[in-house]
């Protein structure tokens, strides 16, 4: 057999200088851009049954949760807000300013005045624990009552009842069927007589809350919608009972209309009352002016003027100088008169801190002079703000921002009016001083003009001013009375609430969808989390990036029931994977591929290293290369079973110098392939593998064969694999996808940094041609016609 071990010479171009030069100057391979979805998709595919279980459980939980949901019915009513129109002011005195601004209607809708009234009318402040007892409370009412939990015990045999307040634990009241229930608790409740029919004791538990609390709960289900400056106000109310929802909203609309009408009437009544007081003051001023003018005429009727008896009331018509003097004198007297009145009024206003309508009766103020414009405007603003404050206090509490703002404005005007009056007094004094100088200079020329004419003119003007003011107030008072009699609310009900036949809001589909979507989200998150926590090798980048190993080849997963020799697809994929691996090993050798010696190992057992070694050796033999396969796993080697040979003599027998090298070389059924079995099991096997005999054996085999392949023990088994790899000089690492522990593999491979071993790369065993590995498969249909029957594939039994 020694003669047969001499290899044939091959074509030198197979590993010539041209190939080596190309290897040295080979351009770098471009980086492959991987999709960021590859790993999540692979994780979902791997945990698909767990994910389906989670999604199914989540959807089932959503379906179960819908049994506890009740459908919601929504009813709708619609109002029209009659906003103020400037053109309506020309239509007559009936039109008045609106009760509230358009934005305040929703506040009025939710106010306690309306909500409390609705709760009382519908008895919503009493709730029985059992809905079957609701008919007993149809005639329930209460005024001043004690809120809390109550229990009504009806003894039908004796025809008596007992009311107990559970929160206090004491009997509140008792009586017969004809008595009113709960008189001591503030109830007015007549229990129907039919309740006492039969025998035994019937217990009714119920809770009584305040109308304000019940109304607040109702308001939470009420929605008021108004789009922009639209005149339409839409109210919607939701409840589980469609009839109850319609009855509640219609009651709410009725109370709302009643309260709005009442507030509008009270506002007009207050406005009319204020005008009545002002009209009374103006009437007194007019009467006083008329009495003063009449008294003056009576007293001066017999007095002559300018040597001529002049009838009382006759006006002088002289030249312009005289006329100007009269006017200046009367104006001066009026100013002096106004100064005296104004001084008295200022002191009274300062004491009372209340603006007086008498300021309007002063001639300088009533005449509309520019200097009095601020004072008159302040008085008008005060009355307007005071009326608005009274109206807002009907609807809102004093703590409301609107009411507080009005209080501050009224207080400011109270302080502002005396200051404006004082400024007017100063102005009048200045004017009086100026007029007195002018009158004195002109008096020398007009000393003979009768003083009674001037006085009569002044009194006539006072009377005319008072008459004009009285007439204006009388007109406005009549308009206010007419508006009060014909007062209508500023809103109109257009659509009433109608009980719907179908639920408006059914959340069951939404709950089921949310449960399903939540289950999908949790399942995906769990799959990604489990994938991140998985310490086993799953993806290509884990071998290249984390372990630093180039991919020398991939081997598809063997079927559980073995390889189907009649399946061209399976055979083609397996054969092509080992052919690709063979090519990688050949070109990774340091001598251009003329001689190949490589150790094949794995980080842990059961990762397929022996299977890879056997089939790779068969692939080299199929290529016509004389190949020897050495079973270096001296403890658990099984290559002899794979090829149907006995285990002895073998490697351990040769290393222990028991036999010669030619005695351990066994021919196999595969042409060009010889096998060296592991040999006799010895306790000294690790020491034998570290002896110089191993290196000598490798050199001898390398000189006699073109390909030398060692199947080593796993690296986790001890030093055996490292010794064999150091002897061959190169190593091929087998990593099983889904089984190899990355952390252990990294630690075991770290030792090769200190050994003279060229790690060729990694062989990914047991891959599925899907996800990130789908590009490592081969397109079927290109296999040779006689390839499957004529080619063998090694399997472990």
Q: Please, could you describe this protein's structure?
A:
By secondary structure, the chain is an alpha/beta fold. The protein has a domain at 549-779: 3-Layer(aba) Sandwich (Rossmann fold), CATH 3.40.50.300. It is built from 24 helices and 19 strands. An 8-stranded mixed beta sheet has the order 12-19-18-13-17-14-16-15, sandwiched between helices. Strands 2-8-4-5-6 form a 5-stranded antiparallel beta sheet, with no helix packed on it. Helix 2 (38-46) packs across helix 13, helix 8 crosses helix 12 and helix 10 (373-395) packs antiparallel against helix 11 (401-443). The protein starts with 16 loop residues before the first helix and ends in a 7-residue tail after the last helix. The model is unreliable at 1-19, 85-97 and 304-318 (pLDDT under 50).
